[in-house]
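Minutes, project check-in
Item: structure for the 203-residue chain
Input as provided by the requester:
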Amino acid sequence: MAQIAGGCAQAGLPSPSSQIEFSQPVPFYNSSPKAMLDATFADQVTVAIPRRSDLGKQSIDDEAALLAVTDIIKQRRELEVEFLANTPQIIINTNRGPRPVTIPLQPIDGAGVIRSAYYSPSTLKSHLMDSVLDLDCVARYREKKHLGLFILRPKKPTAREEKATTSVIESVAFRAPPGLKMEIADTAEELAEQVTEWALSCG
């Protein structure tokens, strides 16, 4: 099936199966081919038997992390939550035309994003780099001086998971624009405190 699908793709023909989708390629940055394939397999092949150590683990995606943190902020600071955007997606007028970016934290002179680290290393890197690029775009075209990237990481990860997550975050931090504040926490409560402190310091 892989050979048939490969042949169809190279010939510009439709997919030979409804279970195989031809779509635009996406960047995996510095991930190796093996790491990319392993992560894609884990994400896409739902019939794969899960590892025993993974059973029962709670998973929090980006949307859930954002909601958990912002709900806590709203409960704690009823009168000072103007920096929480009603519409996270904004349109930036660039020199190549209008482009959408996702910025859920919008203090007066800042832009911030909340992300979850409950992903495979390659997916996490892709998500974080997307946010870094969005923040850099806002800084350049709307002259925002204070940038923030806030990451909710898993509680009690295995040593291997913690090492992989830390490696991805360090790799992204190295590529982040100057002045970007990056904070990491394993509870929504702690991350909410970090977000609020940063937002109120933006003016």
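Outcome recorded: The chain has a mean pLDDT of 83.
No further action items on this chain.
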